[in-house]
Amino acid sequence: MKVPQKLSVRVAALILVIAVVLVMAPRPGGRAYALEIKARAAVLMDYESGRIIFSQNPDVQLPPASVTKLMTMLLIAESIDSGRAKWDDLIRTSKNAAGMGGSQVYLREGEEMTLAEMTKAIAMVSANDASTAVAEYLYGSVELFIQKMNQRAQELGLKNTNFQNEHGLPDPKHYSSAHDLALIARELIRHPKILEWTSTWISYLRDGEFFLRNTNDLIQSYRGADGLKTGHTEEAGYCLCATAEVEGLRFISVIMGAETNQVRVDESTKLLNYGFRNFARAAVASQGEKLGTIRVRRGNPQDVPVGTSTDYAVLVERGKERFIETKLLPEEQIKLPLKRGQQIGTLIVMSGKEEVGRTAVVALQDVKQANFVVRFFRWLGDVVRGWFGRGAKGE
């Protein structure tokens, strides 16, 4: 039986339309667009807000290889902040650390380097031996360091991550996800000393005798790129967590399971280009600027001026910066008296029907509790307004 030619054409056209719709379908965390990433998983995150604007298999548990060292470096940086360690602390290499395979700086048993030197080796060339030496130094044993890695993962709200080692060498119980790695990266970027090393292309150890070349080729090819961490094993494929800042706007991209180094660089470039070319930062409020008032029934004054405690901006699609709208949402319970700077509500920012941000608003002045006489006349005024209001509605 022959199919009529006109019917065949219509069926072909219908198939084409369906294919286009599927390609342009909105993805979780982003708008509709045709963007395919050649990797097992990928994420693009706005650093400032943590908002995901592109995702591809973001929560799939995959081997992260040496991108694991994002957490290793985060624990190092936080140990500096807490006073547990100092950058000029000398670390003696154990037999265990010296025997690590994979990427390394060939530490010898008993060799000493400062914590800063070992961290530079981790950040630039993904040194497994330095990672182990630092883990042992900071917490007394690799096992305790790994416990801390997993504890910190829980604190950051990571739902698809489990660490079995400090370096990322293959282990069936060692995994993470593109989304989780972006969250670790966002926390790590708060430590500028780490970015100094992750953005350095060439450096040296051992008084200039040992050459270091950064494994992250993106910092050479992409404007504003200053990190963050590569990873590769046969099991994991080629991975890269990258970050770049241009004119105050910073994005974090994650590629997991690419086929080659060039593919992970190209796909990271594609993600970052998408972010910088399609989104912009829109200023919403300046610190201390009056945004409106929130009514506090028993307060004196009753209508309390509110604003943000810091400058606040949101990420929106380019061209829509001037079309954002805001609304104030009071706290359910506001206890008096209020101190200037105390949170009493939330500012919600909308772009069309999409919520693009929210932040706390605070009282811009002290607020006392109104006395009985003031509260009585307010009550009386409400009664009178209510009475005349009902009358007007009846006409």
In a nutshell, what does this entry contain?
This protein is an alpha+beta fold. The protein contains eleven helices and 18 strands.
Structure overview:
This protein is of the alpha+beta class and 395 residues long. The protein folds into two domains: 41-280, DD-peptidase/beta-lactamase superfamily (Beta-lactamase, 3-Layer(aba) Sandwich); 286-372, Sandwich (Peptidoglycan synthesis regulatory factor (PBP3), Domain 2), CATH 2.60.410.10. Helix content is 35%, strand content 27%. The protein has helices at residues 5-23, 69-82, 95-98, 115-125, 128-139, 142-155, 178-188, 192-198, 218-221, 261-278, 372-394, and strands at residues 41-46, 52-56, 90-92, 112-114, 202-205, 210-213, 225-233, 237-246, 249-258, 279-285, 292-295, 299-300, 303-307, 312-317, 324-330, 343-351, 354-363, 368-369. The strands form six sheets. The chain has a five-stranded antiparallel sheet with strand order 2-1-9-8-7, sandwiched between helices. Strands 11-13-17-16-15 form a five-stranded antiparallel sheet, with no helix packed on it. Strands 3-4 form a two-stranded antiparallel sheet. α2 packs parallel to α7 (178-188), α4 (115-125) packs antiparallel against α5 (128-139) and α5 crosses α6 (142-155).
